[in-house]
Design goal:
Largest sheet of chain A: none
Distance between the termini of chain A: 53 Å
Number of helices of chain B: 7
Largest interface: A-B, 47 and 40 residues
Radius of gyration of chain A: 17 Å
Structural class of chain A: mainly alpha
Number of strands of chain A: 0
Number of strands of chain B: 0
Helix content of chain A: 55-70%
Largest sheet of chain B: none
Oligomer: heterodimer
Order of helices and strands of chain B: HHHHHHH
Order of helices and strands of chain A: HHHHHHHH
Distance between the termini of chain B: 33 Å
Strand content of chain A: under 5%
Shape of chain B: elongated
Helix content of chain B: over 70%
């Protein structure tokens, strides 16, 4: 398994093992490596920076409680993103019971998809991305922005790699279509 | 790696509980523990109970082969359930649903294959034998079910209801294999109602445990 791990995974696996052995330094390095990508991923669920940051702490606490469920040398990212997704979905479920928490606001640091980055300016693309349904947006963020393979995306969201690929393809198509419709009158 | 400052509250919480942990065994190893329990229950039934199985028109080898198939498929479902308990390792939804569908189809096909008008019985006899079967199946499933659910919920199933349902169905199949040895009826109606009924109840018990676990976790979080 180790030979097949990506460069990033080869860096994360020893950190995770060190963290399991009780090293605070390794936890700090894991936090530094994952804080930004996890925030971006969480934002796709809540679309609110403050809540995403709050959920990020919950995610690391959950990760801490469940650190025994990681078995080296399996890839760390699918395990961590699956936990992050779990925390986000638990939050959404509790928010349905307490709708007063629903707040919409724009997250300033959502990156632009490389595939469509040349089609329009960043703000338009971010708006189009935010218009997509959550499952489509989730796959795009995981694959195109956070660099997970389709197999890893499938493991995180609980579908096959093929299904994740189809979902991403349809989401990109929807973005291109919406973009074309917006440009048509001009 | 650029060191980013960890929020104080998170840092404190982590530092307070930073003892080394041993990673849990892989799903295959944990499934072996369930396999040992399942084999023990099955062997105990073979050795100690009075074998009164009505095989209907089935030849002996086919009867034992179908029981082995049930046992192995039950353990396969347990394995899927245990994989489900590790974040990022669960089977795709389609595969899990298909696996459950295959289990039910196999049970119905086995019932059809072993169909025989085994006994002419009154309605009250039917009910009595049915209740006996249901009770036996519950008792035989209990060790594998409890062990599977314990192994699942001490990890972190991100889809607890699915994990519980898979574990419940797996334990039910294992129990049904043993129950066939002591069930005196291969009557189609009896098998479809009471054996499949018991399987449904055990599957729902597993799913219910998953639901309760999720609720308890949600409550702890809030």
């Amino acid at each position: 398994v180790t030979a097949e791990l990506s460069a990033e995974e080869q860096r994360l696996v020893p950190l995770m093992v060190g963290y399991q052995n009780g090293s605070m330094d390794d936890f700090a390095s894991l936090y530094a490596a994952l804080e930004r990508p996890l925030s971006r991923y969480l934002w796709t669920f809540v679309r609110n920076q403050a809540i995403a940051e709050e959920l990020l702490q919950d995610t690391f606490l959950q990760l801490h409680r469940a650190r025994h469920t990681y078995t080296p040398p399996r890839p760390v990212k699918p395990w961590i993103y699956a936990i992050t997704r779990h925390v986000a979905l638990m939050h959404l479920r509790s928010r349905r019971r307490r709708p007063e928490f629903t707040v919409e606001e724009r997250f300033p640091e959502v990156p632009v998809l490389p595939e469509v980055g040349t089609l329009a300016d960043e703000s338009v693309l971010q708006r189009l991305l935010a218009m997509l349904p959550r499952p489509a947006q989730e796959v795009l963020v995981l694959h195109h922005m956070l660099g997970l393979s389709f197999e890893e995306v499938g493991r995180v969201i609980g579908v096959s790699a093929g299904a994740a690929k189809v979902r991403a393809h349809r989401a990109l198509k929807a973005i291109r279509q919406n973009l074309a419709e917006e440009e048509e009158p001009s | 790696v650029s060191e980013k400052k960890i929020p104080d509250s998170l840092c404190r919480a982590i530092e307070e509980d930073l003892q080394p942990v041993r990673p849990i065994a892989g799903p295959w190893y944990r499934m072996l523990a369930v396999a040992v329990v399942a084999t023990a229950v099955f062997t105990a039934v073979v050795v100690r109970a009075e074998l009164v199985a009505d095989r209907g028109p089935m030849p002996e080898w086919a009867f034992w082969a179908s029981l082995c198939l049930q046992l192995l498929y039950g353990l396969f479902l347990v394995l899927l359930s245990l994989r489900e308990s590790v974040p990022g390792l669960g089977a795709p939804v389609g595969l899990a649903v298909t696996a459950i569908g295959v289990a039910w189809t196999l049970q119905v096909l086995a019932a059809l294959a072993t169909y025989g008008d085994s006994t002419a019985m009154t309605a009250s006899d039917c009910l009595r034998f049915g209740m006996d079967c249901m009770r036996n199946e519950g008792a035989l499933a209990l060790p594998a079910l409890v062990l599977t659910l314990w192994l699942v919920f001490r990890a972190l199933p991100v889809r607890p209801v699915m994990a519980g349902f898979l574990g419940g169905t797996g334990a039910a199949l294992i129990a049904d294999a043993a129950n066939h040895l002591i069930c005196p009826l291969s009557n189609l109606r009896h098998v479809l109602i009471w054996h499949l009924g018991a399987m449904l109840i055990l599957s729902l018990v597993g799913a219910g445990a998953g639901c309760a676990w999720r609720l308890a976790k949600g409550r702890r979080r809030t």
